[in-house]
Write a structure and sequence with these properties.
The complex is a heterodimer. Helices cover 34% and strands 25% of the residues of chain A. Chain A is of the alpha/beta class. The mean pLDDT of chain A is 91. The mean pLDDT of chain B is 82. Classes of the chains: A alpha/beta, B alpha+beta.
Chain lengths: 228, 295
C-alpha cells in the first residue's frame, strides 16, 4: 500500500516540487499518475523509490515510513517494489535471461530459485523464446518486456512504471499496458506514470492528475478533469 | 546462499580485472613500484640499524681508577658502576693487562723500552645499554668514588644516533607518502571500473541489493590486485637484495659491513608487503565505490 499524507518536497535550489499532496493506493489497485512536465510526477516516483525524502509529511510504502527509514533498511523496502523506466535500463552485455536473473542474484537468491523463477516470468511477459538474445537484438517493445520481467521477478507488491510506453509505437504501447494490466490481475499493485491520453482513456482505471505540485483530480475520470 | 554469494563476489571481482586489463596491469605496476621503494628503504633502514647496533656494541666508556687504589680496592668499585642505570656490564682491566695490550699494538717498536705498567692505571671498560645516553652515563661514572677520569667518544655515539634517526624518519615519511600514492592510484583504477558499471550499480540499488553486496566484488578486485602487486614486488625485492646489494658491498670493498641476510627478514617483509598490498586494495576500492552507494 502507498500512502502520501500532506507531502511537501522542496529542493535545495528552492524549487517547490510538491505542495501538500495526499493520496492512498490500496493493494491490488491499478492507478495512472498523469500531469504535465514539471508537475511533480518524477518527484513522486523518487519519493516512492527512496531516492529522496519528503521535506514535510509522511510517505508510507508497503509499511515502510520513507521519511524515517534507516539507510540499511532501504534495500529491503526496494525489494517490495519493481520499477520500469521509459529507457528500459537493461545491461547491454547480458542476455535477456541474465538481465532478469541479475535482479534475483543481487538480492542473494539461490541458483535453484533463479532457475525456477526466471523462465516463469519470461513466459509471463512472452519472451520465453528470446532468452539468449542481447537487448540490442530486441525491439523496443521486447526490451520493455524484459524490463517488466526484471521488475516482476522478485515478486514485488508494487510495480512503478515511469512512462513505460514513451519510446514505443501505439500498438506496442497497448501491448505493454495489457501486460501491466495482466500483472495487476495477478495481484500486484501497479502505478503507471504517463502522458498518453489515449492509452489512459482506453483503460477504465483510477487516474491521479497533478499540476504544479498539487493533486487536481483523483478518480476514474481523472484524465478528463485534468484536460479540462 | 552464503557460498553462492562468495562465489559471485570472486567471479565478479576476477572478471572485472580481466575486463579492465590495462588498468589492472597499471595498478599492479604502480603497487609494485611503490612497494619496491618502500621495501628497499625499509631494508636500508634495517641494515643501518643493524650496523649501528654492531658499532654500538663496540662503543665503550673507559673509567680510570684512582692510581692510589690497590687492585682489590679497584675491583670493589665494580658493583657501584654496574648500579648505574644505563650500564650493561663493566669489565675490569688491571694496569698490567692494559700495559701489555698497549705494547702489543706497537709490537716492533722500541719506544716503550724501560717503561712499565706503573705508567698506566687500572680501569673499567664499561658497555652501555643505550648509546644515545652515553653523555649522561659518562657524567654518572665521574661521581663514582674511586673513579678519577672517564673517557667516552660521545661525538661518535651522537653521530650514530643521528644517522639512525634520519634513516628511520626518512623511511617512515617515504613509506607514508608511497602508501598514499598507491591508495590514490588503486582508488582511481577501481573508480574507472565503477564508472563503467554505474548503470549496473544503479540497477542493483533499484532492485534492492544491499551496499555490502554491491561493494564486495569491487573490494575483491582491489584485494586481488593488491595481493598480486605485493607478491610480485616481494619476489623482485628478494632478487634485487640478493644480487644488487650484496654484489655492491662485496664489489666496493666494504664487505666488512654486516648485511642482514634476506631469509632473516623475508617472513616479516612478506607479511608487511601483503598487508600493505591488501590494505591499499581494500581501502582504495572502498573509497572508489563510496559515492555510488549513497542513494
Amino acid at each position: 500500500m502507498v500512502q502520501f499524507t500532506d507531502v511537501f518536497k522542496s529542493y535545495e535550489n528552492g524549487t517547490k516540487a510538491l505542495r501538500g499532496i495526499s493520496f492512498t493506493i490500496n493493494d491490488g489497485e491499478f492507478v495512472f499518475l498523469v500531469g504535465p512536465s514539471g508537475s511533480g510526477k518524477t518527484t513522486i516516483i523518487k519519493l516512492l523509490t527512496g531516492e529522496i525524502a519528503p521535506t514535510e509529511g509522511t510517505v508510507m510504502v508497503n509499511n515502510y515510513d520513507l521519511g524515517h527509514i534507516r539507510f540499511s533498511k532501504m534495500p529491503y523496502m526496494r525489494r517490495t517494489l519493481g520499477v520500469v523506466f521509459q529507457d528500459y535500463r537493461l545491461i547491454e552485455d547480458k542476455t535477456v535471461y541474465e538481465n532478469v536473473a541479475f535482479a534475483m542474484r543481487v538480492i542473494g537468491a539461490s541458483g535453484k530459485e533463479i532457475r525456477r523463477r526466471v523462465p516463469y516470468v519470461l513466459e509471463l511477459v512472452g519472451l520465453d523464446t528470446r532468452t539468449r538474445r542481447k537487448p540490442q537484438e530486441l525491439s523496443g517493445g521486447e526490451q520493455q518486456r524484459v524490463a517488466i520481467a526484471r521488475a516482476l521477478v522478485n515478486n514485488p507488491r508494487l510495480i512503478i512504471a515511469d512512462e513505460p510506453t514513451g519510446n514505443l509505437d501505439p500498438a506496442r504501447s497497448l501491448e505493454i499496458m495489457m501486460l501491466l494490466q495482466k500483472i495487476n490481475e495477478l495481484g500486484t499493485t501497479v502505478l503507471v506514470v504517463t502522458h498518453e491520453k489515449e492509452l489512459v482513456e482506453s483503460f477504465s482505471k483510477r487516474v491521479i492528475a497533478i499540476d504544479a505540485g498539487k493533486i487536481i483530480s483523483d478518480g476514474m475520470d481523472g484524465y478528463y478533469r485534468y484536460e479540462r | 546462499m552464503r557460498g553462492n554469494r562468495f562465489t559471485y563476489y570472486i567471479r565478479e571481482g576476477v572478471s572485472s580485472i580481466f575486463n579492465h586489463g590495462f588498468m589492472s596491469f597499471a595498478s599492479v605496476c604502480i603497487i609494485v613500484a611503490c612497494l619496491l621503494i618502500m621495501g628497499s628503504f625499509t631494508l636500508l633502514a634495517l641494515n643501518v640499524d643493524n650496523i649501528i647496533d654492531t658499532m654500538e656494541s663496540q662503543n665503550e666508556i673507559m673509567a680510570f681508577v684512582n692510581e692510589t687504589f690497590s687492585e682489590e680496592e679497584a675491583r670493589a668499585i665494580e658493583p657501584e658502576i654496574e648500579r648505574i642505570d644505563n650500564v650493561d656490564y663493566a669489565v675490569f682491566v688491571t694496569r698490567d693487562t692494559a700495559w701489555e695490550d698497549f705494547v702489543e699494538t706497537y709490537e716492533n717498536s722500541t719506544t716503550f723500552e724501560g717503561l712499565d705498567s706503573s705508567v698506566t692505571r687500572d680501569r673499567f671498560v664499561v658497555y652501555l645499554k643505550d648509546i644515545s645516553l652515553m653523555e649522561e652515563t659518562r657524567d654518572a661514572l665521574t661521581y663514582v668514588p674511586g673513579i678519577d677520569y672517564v673517557r667516552a667518544s660521545t661525538q661518535i655515539s651522537q653521530g650514530f644516533v643521528r644517522i639512525r634517526n634520519i634513516v628511520t624518519l626518512a623511511s617512515i615519511g617515504l613509506v607514508a607518502v608511497l602508501f598514499i600514492i598507491s591508495l590514490f592510484i588503486m582508488s582511481n583504477t577501481i573508480k574507472l571500473t565503477t564508472f563503467e558499471r554505474r548503470d549496473e550499480i544503479a540497477i542493483m540499488k533499484m532492485v534492492g541489493a544491499t551496499s555490502t553486496f554491491i561493494r564486495w566484488p569491487f573490494v575483491v578486485q582491489g584485494l586481488i590486485l593488491g595481493l598480486i602487486g605485493a607478491l610480485v614486488s616481494f619476489t623482485l625485492e628478494w632478487g634485487l637484495y640478493q644480487v644488487l646489494i650484496q654484489q655492491l658491498i662485496s664489489g666496493s670493498g666494504i664487505s666488512f659491513l654486516t648485511v642482514i641476510p634476506f631469509y632473516r627478514v623475508s617472513i616479516p617483509l612478506l607479511i608487511a608487503y601483503c598487508a600493505v598490498g591488501l590494505g591499499v586494495g581494500v581501502i582504495g576500492s572502498m573509497l572508489a565505490i563510496k559515492n555510488y552507494l549513497k542513494v
